Amino acid sequence: MFKLFLCLSALVHLSGALSPQCSAESFNSIVPANATVVLVEEVTTNGTFNVPAGDTGFPTDPARLPALCAVQIEMPTEGGTTFNYGLFLPKRWNGRFFVFGNASWAMDPEAVTDWAWRAMHLSVIAAKEVVETYYNQNIKYSYYNGCSTGGRQGLKEVQMFPDDFDGAVIGAPAWWTVHLQLWNIQTTLYNYPETSNGYISNELFQVVAAESLKQCDPQDGVTDNIISDPRGCHLRIEALLCDEHNSTDCLKSTQLDTLYHYYNDWVIGNQTFVFPHFEIGSESLWGGGSSPDLDYVQYFLGLGTNFTANDWDPSYLVALSEAMNPGNATADDFDISPFHSRGGKIIHYHGLSDNSIATGSSDYYYEHVRRTVNPKGIDLDDFYRLFLIPGMEHCSGTPAIMDAPWYIGGTTQASVIGDDSAGYWIHNKSEFHNPRHDVLLALANWVENGTGPTDLIATKWNDEDKLDYVTRQRPICMYPRQANYVGTGDPDIASNWECQSSAY
Ligand SMILES: [Ca+2]
Q1: Could you tell me the distance, in angstroms and rounded to a whole number, from the CA of residue 476 to the centre of ligand 1?
Q2: What stretch or stretches form a coiled coil here (predicted)?
Q3: Which residues contact 143 (CB under 8 A, 6 or more apart)?
Q4: Digit-coded pLDDT (tens) for 368-380
Q5: What is the pLDDT of residues 480-492, one digit of tens each?
């Protein structure tokens, strides 16, 4: 059985429709005959929902909830698999339908299809019916919010089922599955095994990170420990070369060759581009020495467990991966004009210090959508905006040597931030719970009021665990514009920066 615990909740308002009973009987009368009501649980105001054991898609118990009814429903697919989805139905509902994407994994072909797109779409269709019947009221707006695999699921929805959502927040999407999965292995192999001549230890990567910061931080115009324009930096890695004066915190020529791979696109055969490179400024999270995870090749591409790293043949594997496209998971349809036609909006973001999915894959997708829809007379800014966040890692966080502002209310970001000393959490704070500081509220503002964001304010606290005090805020500009310091005032205050056209 494939299991997807999809969280569908409605943002809470003070006024709204009062809900009916939270009981198995009421849901049994709502769901189709082939569905099973797995769980019904009432959560009181400020309560916690205890996630069922083994639910990998929901790693922590959601707390501080409004009064709501939690329900989990299981349904069959036409492929003979089953999927689960969960709903949070607030007592007072404002008519918004909100879907949170998550990460799961699957092995057999039908389950791969569920993982790729089917379980999400079927969940959305089924859940919308349940919600509208439960409240006896139509959904006013539907939103999607996901990062990483969740971002890929969101793009897949936009591409295949443009009517499912009015708006989608897409974070650091793992959209290019057929290339990304192999690139993950390739980047591991760059620095494997530990006994190889070019091996770079985790400790040495910190030396690399310090050197790139030293060179590239000032090149963006402001020396602030943040590499704001990694693409505009000329980084000379030979500065790291060991010599007669330095033989410890330095790299040998063979190690520089390894480093070169990280900083450059993965190309195969006759200069065929496969996947973009890691960005300057993500080095402190690079690592190596561990054996590559070959699950994708062994199971998804069907080459079996006899396939080892010694059998690595990129040209063959890339062609095979493209031909198979397991589960049709790759979200590579650049013609999203149907989503534009129905009035849909997308806010897409990606950290420029992402060490997991190369940031360039996001602007590759975005620019290919531009190439596809511009000739149709569609202005991308009208419905699809991209925001690259200097110094942000994968979906959240920042390297300690940068301390860049990264919080924009993206998926899972609040979950890595603690409470303040008075016991308040981030969503209690009105200064962050607004469209300038919260990307989901920015999307809702765009869809419902027609005001699309030209920038978002990112925040860094001194200690996110304690939510103690803000140390820095920066505008994150709509791509390809960049934030430039106005030249006077505290550079840690957002209003002292302006979004301007970049050189590229
Ligand atoms: Ca800088």
Answers
A1: 14
A2: none
A3: 96, 97, 98, 99, 165, 166, 167, 168, 169, 440, 443, 444, 447
A4: 999 999 999 999 9
A5: 999 999 999 999 9
